[in-house]
Amino acid sequence: MSQAIISPHIPDLDLITVYAQRQDTWFSGVSPWTKFAGLFLIVLLVTLTKNLLVCISLYVVVLLVYAASDLPVRKLFSWYLIPVLFVLSLVGIMAWTEPGVPLFTLDLGIFPLTLTDAGAMLVVTLLLKALISVTYSLFFLMTTRYQYFSAMISRIFPSPLDQIFLMAYRFLFLTLSMIGAMMKAIRSRGGGIVRSLRVQGRIFAEVFALVFIRSFDRAERVSRAMISRGYQGKLEAATDIPRPGLSGYGTIAVSLMAIVLIASFVPDQWGLVW
Amino acid sequence: MAHVHLQDGSFSLFWVVVWWAAALVLIGVSLLILRSRKTDQKKITVAAFCTAAAFAVFQVSIPIFGGVHLTLTPLIGILTGPLTGSLVVLIVNILSAAIGHGGYGLIGANTLINIVEVSVGYAVFRLSKPLMPGLFPRAGIATVLGLLCGNVAMILIILVSGIQGVSQDMSAVLGGLSLIAAINMGVAVVEAFITGLIIAYIGKVRPDMLGSGGP
């Protein structure tokens, strides 16, 4: 069952997996380690720069890479809702008290709210940074096969964290399918209609409680089945992850140098923060 | 739930590294203790299913107050304890960052906040058993207190780190954060109610899941 039944604004893991396994674009053939390094470098750059032009350019580049990978752009825009809401929920409030040149004022009767140029710039810059990171993250997820992810998790995280992570990722699809089926059942019986906190709370509490109880039941069954097949607390992901080629190392090195240069020499409205 | 509702680029590199390091230290301590106790395979499997359930539940928007999402971190603490719970919240935060719910650079800060929620939720639920035998009020109060402490941790982390590009003084930032915290605590009441019902339901159907904190 598609995760879209739960919420159309949250990235659908089933759809992401379909694209990841498809592997028919040039970017799918790029080493997962190169793409992982790219994620690290992008997070580093958006952390270091506050230059709006750098943010706009980086967003355009990441979006073009995403589109060139034949990934669904319209879906991406609908998935932006949650990160946008996250930024606006905090910075959207702070923008109204940021000192600067007033752009317009909202008179609320008790006190006026003034949006300044610095406040608007703050929101735009942080929104762009959020979208850069989200777009690249989804590109990474949608162009990298599951077996490579599991092998990377196995190599990066210590035990038993890697075991929990690997199993959780596998169980996630089962659990999402289970919760999706329950949500469908609730909606088909009118449970999606807004009623009192007590009624609504009880319905969803029972769904969530069932999810946890069934998860525990499954965990016990899976655990017994795994132990009977020789599981001793170590689940190895033996897949060989393609290493970055010369061009991969070159891209990483050039990108790192570019970030250092941008962080050192590109001026911006507020200056760069180290 | 409390969460640093910010994305990558909001904190300076220094504070990203500081919060990541602090979270990794706590995770490292949890791992060391769990390893020294020779965690059985079943506990690992249960933790994995709990991680998947927590992440899946977070995806559901409940049609109350225009739609709220719950992370159920105190519930994770009550069900798995603070050690395994800290690993669970780290993985949930990584998965959440992967789909755009919180930045990768903010995973450290968010994990710290969630560890506070998990630990306080667990401690209050266990310690208040002699005073309050009923599962519903005990889980509800544990959730409210866990999320309250999580909110305080969130405010402190943002006040200490500052937000890049924000030039207003600390009192103005605190004003904005207090508004967010007030909204979060409104959601916390909903989460406490739902967690109370979940724990009461689990107490009836599978009391063994609650261990010594059960009925």
Overview of the structural elements:
The complex is a heterodimer of chains A (274) and B (215). With 274 residues, chain A is mainly α. Chain A has helices spanning 13-22, 32-48, 52-68, 73-79, 81-94, 117-142, 146-156, 161-188, 197-228, 246-265; strands spanning 102-107, 112-116. Chain A has a domain at 24-144 and 244-274. A two-stranded antiparallel sheet of chain A has the order 1-2. In chain A, a hairpin with a 4-residue loop joins strand 1 and strand 2. In chain A, helix 2 packs parallel to helix 10 and helix 5 (81-94) packs antiparallel against helix 6. The relative contact order of chain A is 0.16. Chain B has one domain (13-213): Arp2/3 complex 21 kDa subunit ARPC3 (Orthogonal Bundle). The mean pLDDT of chain B is 85. Chain B is built from six helices and no strands. With 215 residues, chain B is an all-alpha fold. Classes of the chains: A mainly alpha (274), B mainly alpha (215). Chains A and B meet through helix 2, helix 5, helix 6, helix 8 and helix 9 of A and helix 1, helix 2, helix 3 and helix 6 of B.
Helix content of chain B: over 70%
Please give the alpha-carbon distance between the first and last residues of chain A.
46 Å
Tally the helices of chain A: 10
Bin the helical content of chain A: 55-70%
Counted beta strands of chain A? 2
Shape designation of chain B? globular
% residues in beta strands of chain A: under 5%
The CATH topology of chain B: Arp2/3 complex 21 kDa subunit ARPC3
Write down the domain tally of chain B: 1
Content-based structural category of chain A: mainly alpha
Which helices and strands, and how do they pair?
The complex is a heterodimer of chains A (274) and B (215).
Chain A: H1 13-22, H2 32-48, H3 52-68, H4 73-79, H5 81-94, E1 102-107, E2 112-116, H6 117-142, H7 146-156, H8 161-188, H9 197-228, H10 246-265
Antiparallel strand pairs in A: 1-2
Helix pairs in contact in A: 2-6, 2-10, 3-6, 5-6, 7-8, 8-9
Chain B: H1 13-36, H2 41-58, H3 73-98, H4 107-127, H5 135-161, H6 170-205
Helix pairs in contact in B: 1-3, 1-4, 2-3, 3-4, 3-5, 4-5, 5-6
